[in-house]
Amino acid sequence: MVIVQNGLDSERGLKTFINMFFKTDDDLSVFSDFNYSNKIINVYTVLYYENKKYTDDYYLNFDSEGRSENLINKVFRAACANSFVHAAMKIHKINLPWGSMCGIRPAKNAREMAEDGSNDDEIEYIFEKIYEVSPEKTRLAMTVAKNEQKILNEIGKNSVSIYIGIPFCPTRCLYCSFVSTDMRVSGKYMNAFCDKLVLEIKKTAEVIKRLGAFAESVYIGGGTPTSLDNENLEKILSAVNEYFDLKKIKEFTLEAGRADTITDEKLAAAKKYGVTRISVNPQTMNDKTLKRVGRKHTAQDVKDIFLKAREIGFDNINMDLIAGLPDESFEDFKYSVDEVLKLDPDDITIHTMCVKHGARLKNAELEFTESKTMNRMLEYAQEKMKNTGRIPYYMYRQKNMVGNLENVGYAYPDKMCSYNISIMEETQTIIALGGGGSTKIVTDDDIIRIYNYKDPKEYIEKFENILEKKDEILKLKGVI
Ligand code: SF4
Question: How many Cβ atoms are within 10 Å of 386's Cβ, its own excluded?
Fold first, then answer.
């Protein structure tokens, strides 16, 4: 593959779109010529594909006067991507509802444009005319940006969020690309992992104190944290209570993802130690699919656990569904949405099927849902959420999403998860503990990331290094 660009080097962004349209071993050459004069952007693109020539001559009126360098750069790159996409569409037609906006945080883009002084009409113009985002997706991103603002305004000064990663699951789901290990293989590390994690919680609490900060939200995710046995789960929950000031913690989430890991004792422990929000994530309410993707529980188990959690007193429960699971039709997905809504969870995240390199699914011989059906699925979910009073409040996109769509969280207005918003909007420092988490230190002009080990064995063996990384936070913040 050959890529030649004149006038502007935007190869990195361009490659994202090249990978969407073509395979790496395709016989393809891309030539792109960029010019900007008299407030007009012109990009001339030529593609040579299998001995045929495809061209696009793209023009856009754009006045760069008074615009930030950041925005000008983004617009120029979008112009190159648009022209490439127009030419590539003459070869393959694909669904691009987000046009040439290739970042993972569209709502953050809308929010930052508003903060830079753009009004709604201008934001709409940039989304639809410059990035060629569809009007529906533009509206969605702008709505999310407005809904999440309420939570962003409430984030405390000097506050941080805490993420605790538990990288264990009872089995590995077919589509999994998360940091998780199969308990049948890695279960032997559970005790040692949890003992070390308690030390990391203690160390983190000391670091936060030295920063003059406080923990505002705690999110225990994974993996599946409820894969831990009762004793280890209680050890972690109790350490959070012991080392952090629970009175200042506004939100304490425990992902109780898979129904086959949740017991009465674990729910009771979560309640006892101050968990305010749990996730019970079916992904689908179709038993056939649950079995196909490697989950060892039924839809009825999900319902039973959900009702038990309500009975114990959890008044903020999240449920996740995935649109486009292999071999699922529109009717299958609709059934899942309707079944979940009958339970009336406070927060529902609709994910779009994503095939990442880490997933076993990539090599499985299963049918992926067509873009048209994916659109229908997401539209159905969106309409249902709206009709039941849930608002879209956080969203993100990933590479390799079927239909190039998005993941959206819908919650009742008083049940929006502030951690979910923080992780997407990157306005608050998040300190990650445990397996596979990434700490994000937000400074005035940068976001610095520090990674923990993913594998429980490595986490245990290199634990001294984990503690040193916590001291790095103090250095980065100028405390030591
Ligand atoms: S429950 Fe989630 S983290 Fe665990 S294997 Fe399945 S997809 Fe991966």
Answer: 12
Task: Report yes or no: 343 and 281 within 8 Å, Cβ to Cβ.
Answer: no
The rounded distance, in Å, linking the Cα atoms of 155 and 250 is 10
Which tokens go with 314?
């959890």
Residue 238 identity (one-letter amino acid): S
Mutate to test the pocket of ligand 1, among 168, 178, 302, 356 (most ligand atoms within 8 A of CB): 178
> Which residue is closest in CA terms to ligand 1's atom 7?
176
User: What's the pLDDT at 365?
Assistant: 56
DSSP one-letter code for 254: E
Measured by CA distance, the residue closest to atom 8 of ligand 1 is 176
How do beta strands 391-396 and 407-411 pair? antiparallel
Ligand 1 pocket test, candidate residues 166, 176, 293, most atoms within 8 A of CB: 176
Query: Are 425 and 111 in contact, with CB atoms under 8 Å apart?
Result: yes
54 vs 20, 46, 78, 87, 92, CA distance in Å?
17, 6, 19, 6, 12
On the question of pLDDT at 172 being above 90, the answer is no
Distance 23 CA to ligand 1 centre (A): 29
Q: What is the pLDDT of residues 40-78, one digit of tens each?
A: 999 999 999 999 999 999 999 999 998 888 889 989 999
